[in-house]
Design goal:
The complex is a heterodimer of chains A (168) and B (456). With 168 residues, chain A is mainly α. Chain A folds into 2 domains: 1-82, no CATH class; 128-168. Helices cover 74% and strands 0% of the residues of chain A. In chain A, helix 1 (3-25) packs antiparallel against helix 2 and helix 2 (29-49) packs antiparallel against helix 3 (53-78). The longest helix of chain A is centred in the middle third of the chain and has 26 residues, at 53-78. The relative contact order of chain B is 0.11. With 456 residues, chain B is mostly helical. In chain B, a hairpin with a 5-residue loop joins strand 1 and strand 2. Chain B has 2 domains: 14-118, no CATH class; 120-440, no CATH class. The longest helix of chain B is centred in the first third of the chain and has 34 residues, at 59-92. The chains are: A mainly alpha (168), B mainly alpha (456). At the A-B interface, helix 2 and helix 3 of A face helix 7, helix 8, helix 9 and helix 10 of B.
Chain lengths: 168, 456
């Protein structure tokens, strides 16, 4: 890892941690959404830095351009007062800590037990190319791919049915 | 009225007039700006040719230079575009347009800029301040991001060789990404935020409606945009923008000739994504005051304004690269397709920008010719018109791929004639069928059928 890469990595990693903390402690839901956008963008930048261009683009298109827009959209359409604030109750905090702690423990166990490729900084350009990705999806992993598309199709049909005006 | 602004009756020169109308100052400034860099560059070249060669041989430095050059061009292009738009709208509406500042109004952008800087910044008391300030910056910054992957002038092979005697080749792209078109879609999907956050943070119901409309519109029109681009991806077999341009140049078949329907889809979607008329419902004056930028003033409004124009320039550059052959001179046989010298790159750069200017002029003509859609018309056009056509085009492109009709860069125009003819024929069939279906239906007026008839 060159010096520039290291600097860029620490900038975006710092941004990721910083904005994640702000998602947690924000009281205003739209601001939290904005910090979430920064966090997702930082993840996309880290993926780009790893040479996983396709994943970075998908991260941007799906999460920032799709999921987060829908969150913001939904909040804005359903909010009763212009700036909703939410207060977290104590039992919710405890539940959150328990779930988060379990997740962290699980991730730590998985991370500490997994063999890391050595040397850690080297990523081949070929592994991440879009063409490879597409070919793998349609050959080795065709079943999960098709299942996911089926699921998405079902969701789309369901959404269309729900959104249809009732016939009188 | 403040003393530095024009009043319609008072013709005495204002302080700004005194600066701008002092043609000596302005003229000398222009001459300095234009002429100083040339001897400077020549002197540097004469003094330290080895250093210059070393710098120009590295892709990093060339990328940085292209970044600076294209950003400068775009930012200035915004100003020129605003003037051009005002002049063009004046011509279409039989007015004179701005003609007071500088030579026949040529320096109006400078006056506009000074005006924006001098105006008072108003932040509404109940606005969400941080997001209110961030939103215009986001809108402007995101619209500049797309320029990173545009292949301005193909590759340059320098007249010198490196230490081991190999020719040095650099590309005039800032970043050559293998996800090219996906990057473009990703940037497009981020550009929603500037508008929607501005609308929300203003704490103004009209602004809020404008932001909502803009979001719904951008989300809807991303689908036909994606489908239109998918046709090109399928036929060219790559996501890289520079390869798409190279293919068009070497085969001599521009994508707009082989895939006119896809070009129309992407063009319409690009209009909608830039929020310009006939798709400017987000700032529809009759209904929403000024839409999402109702509460914005001074430089923050100017950022939205510049962002819109920068977005328009980006969209035009993408359309040029994807459909209009990029830097390729003309369809058929392009004499410069395989020439990679620096002077060829200069010609290509100018050709590219000439095409971009033509597309921008088209944008402006459309804006001042067509009336605005109503919101339900807008939605039904996207979902009932463009999306089905786009799906048909994708299926046709897939079928043509399967039977092996795709551009072959190794052959020239004659070798690719079968692909071109078949694709064009299929497109014509789709156009005819669509028009026939459209003619069978009652005309789409968007009138709701359950409303009582209008009383005379």
């Amino acid at each position: 890892m060159s010096v520039i890469e290291a600097i860029v990595f620490y900038i975006f990693a710092g941004l990721l941690v910083f904005s994640s903390v702000f998602i947690l402690f924000g009281r205003n839901i739209i601001r939290s959404a904005m910090w979430l956008m920064a966090a997702l963008g930082a993840v996309a930048a880290l993926l780009l830095l790893l040479g996983a261009n396709y994943l970075a683009a998908v991260q941007l298109v799906l999460y920032i351009g799709g999921v987060l827009v829908l969150i913001v959209f939904g909040v804005m359409l359903t909010a009763k007062s212009p700036y909703i604030r939410y207060d977290v109750k104590l039992h919710e905090q405890i539940a959150g800590f328990v779930v988060g702690g379990l997740l962290l423990a699980g991730l730590l166990v998985a991370l500490l037990n997994s063999p890391w490729p050595k040397p850690p900084g080297v990523v081949s350009d070929q592994a991440a190319s879009v063409r490879d990705f597409g070919e793998r999806l349609l050959t080795s992993y065709w079943l999960p791919f098709e299942l996911v598309s089926l699921l998405l199709l079902a969701v789309m049909v369901g959404a269309a049915v729900l959104a249809r005006p009732e016939k009188r | 009225m403040p003393s530095f602004l024009h009043s319609p009756t008072d013709k005495t020169p204002t302080p700004i007039d005194r600066i701008i109308r002092h043609r000596g100052i302005v003229l000398n400034g222009f001459i300095l700006l234009l002429l100083v860099p040339i001897p400077l560059a020549f002197a540097v070249w004469k003094l330290a040719p080895a250093t210059v060669q070393a710098v120009l041989s590295s892709q990093w430095a060339v990328s940085l230079i292209m970044l600076a050059v294209s950003l400068l061009i775009i930012v200035h292009m915004c100003a020129v575009c605003i003037l051009a738009e005002r002049k063009l709208s004046a011509y279409i509406q039989d007015r004179l347009g701005p003609n007071r500042v500088g030579w026949g109004g040529m320096l109006q952008p400078i006056a506009d800029g000074i005006k924006f800087v001098l105006k008072e910044e108003v932040i509404p008391a109940r606005a969400e301040k941080a997001i209110f300030v961030v939103a215009p910056c986001l809108a402007f910054a995101v619209s500049l991001l797309g320029f990173a992957i545009i292949p301005w002038a193909g590759e340059i092979t320098w007249p010198w060789t490196d230490a081991s005697g190999n020719p040095v080749t650099v590309t005039t792209q800032v970043a050559s990404l293998d996800i090219g078109l996906l990057y473009m879609l990703a940037i497009g999907s981020i550009s929603v935020y500037g508008v929607v956050l501005a609308g929300w943070a203003s704490n103004n119901k009209y602004a809020h409606f404008g932001g909502m409309r803009a979001t719904a519109q951008m989300l809807s029109y991303e689908v036909p945009l994606g489908l239109g681009l998918l046709v090109i991806i399928l036929s060219s077999g790559t996501l890289r923008l520079e390869e798409i341009v190279n293919q068009q140049a070497t085969t001599g078949v521009w994508n707009i000739m082989a895939h006119p329907v896809a070009a129309c889809l992407v063009l319409v979607a690009a209009f909608a994504e830039t929020n310009r008329s006939p798709f400017d419902l987000a700032e529809c004056e009759q209904e929403l005051i000024a839409g999402f930028h109702t509460e914005y003033s001074a430089m923050k409004f100017a950022l939205f304004f510049l962002g819109e124009y920068a977005h328009m320039v980006t969209a035009s550059a993408f359309l040029t690269a994807i459909f209009l052959g990029g830097w390729s001179l003309w369809p058929g046989y392009d004499p410069l397709a395989e020439v990679h010298t620096w002077w060829a790159a200069l010609i290509k750069f100018n050709v590219f920008w000439g095409k971009v200017l033509a597309v921008i002029a088209f944008y402006m003509l459309v804006r001042w010719t067509l009336p605005r859609f109503r919101f339900d018309q807008l939605m039904s056009m996207a979902w009932k018109g463009l999306v089905p056509i786009g799906m048909v085009m994708v299926i046709i492109a897939l079928a043509m791929n399967t039977v092996g009709l795709r551009p072959d860069p190794a052959k020239g125009f004659a070798g690719n004639f079968a692909y071109f003819g078949a694709s064009l024929a299929m497109n014509v069939v789709v156009i005819v069928v669509t028009m026939a279906i459209g003619a069978r239906r009652p005309p789409v007026t968007g009138r709701q059928p359950n409303l009582p008839p209008v009383q005379a």
